[in-house]
């Protein structure tokens, strides 16, 4: 059996840090990996005597944390990141639809998937829930590249049969057939999973949403991934298009899409009644603060989501988000919550970026922290390449203060190494 130990400071969460015992920090810790899984974690002085010849890599200035989880991101949109415009609907038609049209060419999809996944690893992100495009080939390309990197990834073909240019639209029937073929080809293959992915209520006919619901019942374990309640114009259009539904969430409820396997990005403008039903449905939220600020969509209400009992992860939402880094995302999550008089601490921010995301994606039995038997996806962080952060850390008052500064000031330069299932996948 191949065992390898990694000695550094270690931080992870055993649960939501509203439980005081959930955060675990070892100033001088060791993570023991066996055949790609976590075998042991603890304080170096306690574990070192038992290592018995196991090779040890030592990062004296390093901090090991679980691989980051990006709960909502669009891989074809890396080419339009930071595109100036108005708000959501105009941004979609000006930038998103034309760029996604290029993915009808498999070579564009493959080249972009490679770039995207390499950037995830560079940012310390080892798992993501990903929108591809309407083209089946664009999903095959992404899954093939994720498989080559052995990354745990969930993705799906965009379903979009109305209110989009003809060239990038499917039909209810082709969308259903192609999704089914993709599920058979990729769901549960290695570390990959499938998400049925209607873009949002505005771009799917009732028939398409009905067939999306059918895909979920026909394939237990397959996820549902879409957008919900991001922008006021979007809400008004949903009211016009679905006059028999009392609110936006009711559209997804009507077609059987509001389930514990569902992840809804944004959820900014849900009414109290929608939150209550959302909580009861067991669905999860991807909180995308960078995107929500960039498009001027609004301030997510984390307290309302938590009061409803919803699971919450963080999403970069590139390309409406301007960074693939979960550091940038933690930093803006803090600021959005501050604006709502809710001050998050470092443990909560790292929770949202790791175990919280894993819970939102239904993967917390496999990833998200260093419990024994979990898949060894982890990141070695060090601040030496960021002068401002290094200086700030030298003045840190406590481990919690150090973690908080890291969450606010970190970026891809703080990622020294990324490991996927125990194997080195990126080195700075
Ligand atoms: N709503 C529907 N499609 C999209 C998209 O591509 N990005 C964002 N941010 N919101 C959406
Ligand atoms: Zn999105």
Question: What does this 3D model show about the protein?
Answer:
The chain is α/β, with parallel strands linked by helices and 428 residues long. It has two domains: 3-67 and 369-427, Urease, subunit C, domain 1 (Roll); 68-360, Alpha-Beta Barrel (TIM Barrel). Helix content is 38%, strand content 24%. The chain has helices at residues 44-47, 88-101, 106-122, 136-148, 172-186, 206-218, 232-241, 248-254, 272-281, 289-294, 302-307, 326-339, 346-353, 355-360, 387-394, 399-409, and strands at residues 3-13, 23-34, 37-43, 56-66, 68-74, 125-131, 152-156, 158-159, 192-198, 223-228, 262-266, 284-287, 311-314, 378-381, 415-420, 423-427. Strands 5, 6, 7, 8, 9, 10, 11, 12 and 13 form a nine-stranded parallel beta sheet that branches. A seven-stranded mixed beta sheet has the order 3-2-1-4-14-15-16. Strand 6 (125-131), helix 4 (136-148) and strand 7 form a beta-alpha-beta unit. The longest helix is centred in the N-terminal third of the chain and has 17 residues, at 106-122. The mean pLDDT is 97. The structure holds guanine and zinc ion (ZN). The site of zinc ion has 5 residues, from strand 5.
């Amino acid at each position: 059996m191949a065992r390898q130990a990694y000695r550094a400071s270690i931080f992870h969460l055993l649960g939501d840090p509203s439980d005081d015992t959930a955060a675990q920090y070892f100033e001088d810790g060791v993570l023991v990996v066996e055949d790609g899984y976590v075998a042991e974690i603890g304080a170096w002085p306690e574990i070192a005597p038992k290592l018995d010849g196991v090779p040890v890599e030592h990062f004296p200035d390093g901090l090991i944390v679980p691989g980051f989880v990006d709960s909502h991101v669009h891989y074809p949109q890396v080419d339009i990141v930071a595109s100036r415009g108005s708000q959501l609907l105009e941004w979609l038609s000006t930038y998103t639809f034309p760029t996604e049209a290029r993915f009808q060419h498999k070579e564009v999809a493959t080249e972009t998937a490679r770039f995207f996944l390499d950037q995830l690893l560079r940012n310390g992100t080892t798992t993501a829930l990903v929108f591809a495009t309407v083209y089946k080939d664009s999903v095959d390309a992404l899954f093939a590249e994720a498989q080559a990197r052995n990354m745990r990834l969930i993705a799906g073909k965009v379903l979009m049969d109305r209110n989009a240019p003809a060239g990038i639209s499917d039909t209810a029937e082709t969308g259903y057939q192609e999704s089914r073929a993709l599920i058979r080809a990729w769901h549960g293959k290695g570390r990959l999973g499938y998400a049925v992915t209607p873009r949002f209520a505005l771009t799917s006919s009732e028939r398409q949403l009905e067939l999306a619901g059918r895909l979920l019942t026909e394939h237990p374990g397959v996820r549902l991934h879409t957008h919900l309640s991001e922008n006021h114009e979007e809400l008004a259009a949903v009211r016009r298009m679905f006059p028999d539904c009392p609110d936006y969430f009711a559209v997804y409820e009507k077609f059987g899409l509001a389930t514990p396997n569902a992840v809804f990005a944004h959820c900014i403008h849900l009414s109290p009644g929608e939150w209550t039903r959302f909580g009861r449905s067991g669905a999860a939220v991807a909180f995308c603060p960078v995107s929500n600020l960039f498009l001027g969509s609004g301030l997510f209400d984390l307290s309302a989501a938590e009061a409803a009992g919803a699971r919450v992860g963080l999403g970069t939402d590139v390309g409406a988000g301007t960074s693939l880094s979960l550091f940038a995302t933690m930093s803006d999550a803090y600021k959005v919550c501050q604006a709502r008089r809710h001050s998050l601490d470092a443990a909560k921010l790292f929770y949202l970026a790791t175990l919280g995301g894993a819970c939102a994606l239904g993967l917390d039995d496999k990833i998200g922290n260093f419990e024994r038997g979990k898949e060894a996806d982890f990141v070695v962080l060090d601040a030496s390449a960021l002068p401002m952060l290094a200086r700030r850390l030298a003045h840190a008052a406590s481990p919690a203060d150090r973690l908080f500064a890291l969450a606010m000031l970190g970026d891809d330069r703080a990622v020294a190494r990324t490991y996927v299932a125990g194997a080195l996948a990126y080195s700075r």
